[in-house]
């Protein structure tokens, strides 16, 4: 038996109805603002992340003459390239689920759109976690190569730190 009297039950029911109405309004506003173009932006972000890896490898390759442990460098580069290849295939698979769709998301496609959005989010998280340790190893090799270049006094001495943010910005700038 309920410990609430009739008036309290009615007030609770009114409050629940108001909350449901407010949630429905928020849901409708979210649905009305969803577009397929947002998913295309997520796809492009994924492509930029993967392209940045190749840019990092190219930057380190310029300094490869100064890397003492070339076997380890090749191992790290191959690991990145293998992961980028696998991630590229996965990214294309995600993109195939919405390729060619543009504009506002229709009522019937909301779940497909949300699913693709969640899949992109998961992809970016996983790609970052997968590539980050290898990026750190590549960055360390680059730093050691720079130090060796400075020690030897080569022309390309001290090209500066390898910065993924700068590489990503360069990739984005090329696309614009």
Could you characterize what this model shows?
The protein is built from 5 helices and no strands. The chain has 176 residues and is mostly helical. Helix 2 crosses helix 5. The radius of gyration is 25 Å and the shape is elongated.
**Shape descriptor:** elongated
Assembly state (oligomeric): single chain
What ranges have pLDDT less than 50 throughout 5 or more consecutive residues? none
The strand count comes to 0
**How do the helices and strands follow one another from N- to C-terminus?**
HHHHH
Main sheet overview:
none
- Share of residues in strands: under 5%
DSSP helix fraction = over 70%
Protein structure class: mainly alpha
End-to-end C-alpha gap: 67 Å
The value of Rg in angstroms is: 25 Å
Total of helices: 5
Mean pLDDT: 82
Report a brief summary of the structure.
The protein has 176 residues and is mainly alpha-helical.
How does the SSE layout of this entry go?
Elements: H1 6-33, H2 36-61, H3 70-96, H4 110-152, H5 164-175
Helix pairs in contact: 2-3, 2-4, 2-5, 3-4
């Amino acid at each position: 038996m309920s410990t609430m009297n009739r008036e309290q039950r009615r007030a609770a029911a009114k409050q629940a109805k108001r909350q449901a109405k407010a949630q429905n309004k928020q849901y409708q506003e979210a649905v009305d603002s969803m577009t397929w173009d947002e998913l295309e932006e997520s796809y492009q972000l994924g492509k930029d992340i993967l392209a940045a890896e190749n840019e990092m490898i190219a930057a380190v390759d310029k300094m490869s003459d100064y890397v003492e442990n070339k076997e380890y460098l090749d191992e790290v580069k191959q690991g990145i390239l293998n992961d980028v290849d696998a991630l590229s295939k996965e990214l294309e698979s995600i993109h195939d689920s919405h390729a060619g769709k543009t504009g506002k998301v229709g009522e019937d496609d909301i779940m497909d759109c949300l699913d693709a959005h969640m899949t992109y989010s998961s992809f970016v998280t996983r790609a970052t976690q997968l590539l980050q340790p290898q990026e750190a190893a590549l960055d360390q090799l680059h730093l050691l190569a720079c130090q060796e270049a400075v020690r030897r006094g080569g022309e390309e001495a001290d090209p500066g730190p390898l910065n993924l943010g700068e590489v990503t910005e360069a990739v984005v700038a090329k696309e614009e």
